[in-house]
Amino acid sequence: MSATPDQRLARTFVALADTLVVGFDVLDFLAALTERSVELLEVDAASVILSDQRGGWRPAAGSSERADLVELFAVQARQGPCFDCVAEGRPVRSGDLATEAALRRWPRFAPAALDAGFRAASAVPMRLREQTVGALTLLKQAPVDPDDNTIAVGQALADVATIGILHNRAASRAELLAEELEATLRRRAVIEQAKGVLAEHGGVDMHEAFTALRRYAHDQERGLSEVARDLADGTVSPADVFARG
Q: Where is the ANTAR domain (predicted)?
């Protein structure tokens, strides 16, 4: 018997909580968050941006590493519902990006999203008390305005992600929060390099390379960024990673 939506949601929170306790890796956690968001909220793609602690926002994870989606996720860190969401600290939604493009509300994001095949978008903030540290974006291929329940569940998932980023540290201390966010984004840069190495070696696209990297890290019970660093310094070879596939 297949699980009900409520059962899948409950299992997601249990899985995320388990990730916090055992072998926590924040980038792997965020990647899993976006994948579960796609599954549970019946959207076609999801991504996370984080504060770089210097007044800017940068992409940290996505449900796919497809090149056009990675480019779109980078654009949304500067414009679109995700950018508005972190600026205002509240959910932002649009049920028809074609209309937004015509009105030039988001002159860079809306055309890029349409070119990637998406017609609707929404974003919910990742908040620590009154401070917004990032956002979770949800994209749909159909022009459908997300309902209140989807936004509410998305917000709950974003709240869990915020707890995951802080990793049970003394979150009230702003300097620890800034340190963790900056470290997360530095690790993401290392992973981008590792993806390129694997893609070139294996003749695969970036999404397949990222999937192989995650699979190898899970199999070795190691952190995603740790394995990426080993690829960079030659401790682990691309052949080792693909052999685990």
A: 171-232
Domain with CATH 1.10.10 in the chain: 188-243
pTM for the full predicted model:
0.73
In CATH, the number for domain 188-243 is 1.10.10
Q: One digit per residue, pLDDT tens: the chain, 245 residues?
A: 456 666 666 666 666 655 555 556 778 888 988 998 998 898 999 999 998 878 889 999 999 988 888 899 999 989 999 999 998 999 999 999 999 988 899 999 999 999 999 999 999 999 877 778 899 999 999 999 888 988 999 998 888 878 777 654 544 455 666 777 888 888 889 999 999 999 999 999 999 999 999 999 999 989 899 999 999 888 999 999 998 65
Residue 112 to residue 75: CA distance in whole angstroms: 8
The CATH class for the domain spanning 5-168 reads alpha beta
State how far the Cα of 175 lies from the Cα of 71, in Å rounded to an integer: 30
Name the segment(s) of the chain with CATH classification 3.30.450.40: 5-168
Whole-angstrom Cα distance, residue 213 to residue 237? 11
